[in-house]
Amino acid sequence: MRAAFRTFVTALLFLGLVLPIGPAQADMPDAANWPRPRFITYNICGAAKQCPPVDRKAFQAAMVSAIDHWDADLVFLQEVCYGQWTLLRDHLNTRTDGPRYDSVWGATRTSSGCLDWGSDQRFGLATFAKGTFEEGTRTVVPLPEDESDGAIENRILLCGRVPVTGRPVRACNTHIAPETGQGGPQVDKVAEVTRSYAAEGDPVVLGGDFNLAPTDSILNALYDHNGGKGVFQEVDENDTAFFGPTCDQSADRCRSGEPTAVPTCATDLETPVKIDYIFLSYYWFTNVRGDAAACADTVSDHRLLRGAAAWEH
Predict the structure, then answer these.
(1) C or N terminus of the chain, fewer CB within 10 Å?
(2) How many angstroms separate the Cα of 234 from the Cα of each of 12, 116, 222?
(3) Residue 237: how many CB atoms within 10 A of its CB?
(4) Inside any domain, residue 129
(5) Which pTM value belongs to this model?
(6) What is the rounded average pLDDT of the residues 47-76?
């Protein structure tokens, strides 16, 4: 998978589509000036060989600190070992020193490199919410995969309906395959399902690792602007410091954003690139904001992406 990802980044560099690193920024934006609701998406690198060594206490402390510091309403995690999910689930759902979070889980593998996290080897996606998921609304939609093209996971879209600052929201989470040829059909399926939720009148928040740059035509199915035909805006699309070469520098938004995979996190990378996203259905949200955190050597080879928005209606 990582070899496929390196090939993907090299191709982006060749095409001139990799986003600039931009000026140095503080790790934590001034949260007091950011709108609500708040979101996080994070590929936590649970089972890959290059991931940080397992330290249950350090992992839990880092994750809980990140969630609480941002006071996140929704948290989307990818590459999650079952033992990582239960560790966070059991703490966040019962604690008395902070807001409690409900969660849903979906497995993409039944056997993985998760042995250090417990005997249950399942691996997949987890979504946490500062609210209770409505009973019977958890769905796991399989995404198209071509096993002959190197697919090693059963890629899914994990969704659930949950109140966010008092409003019911469809919270969806995914991890798109990095292998060439897999991304298009998978993103199309994600767009189809989430578009149906939006058509039913639900605000939709879609988080995940898409293994695609914002300018990739595959993401046309999601974006509602700059060549897109979807129903989403993205939290980090209006930071002009990270507008790429294809952006109109005088525009107020562009398919762009701060890199979430950078050489200082993933040492096998040479070029920074944005591949992690928080998409918000454009009809329901406004004033979107996004920021990528610094690398966390106790958690992942990705950067955590924070997002925020205000309700449109």
Answers:
(1) C
(2) 20, 35, 9
(3) 26
(4) yes
(5) 0.90
(6) 90
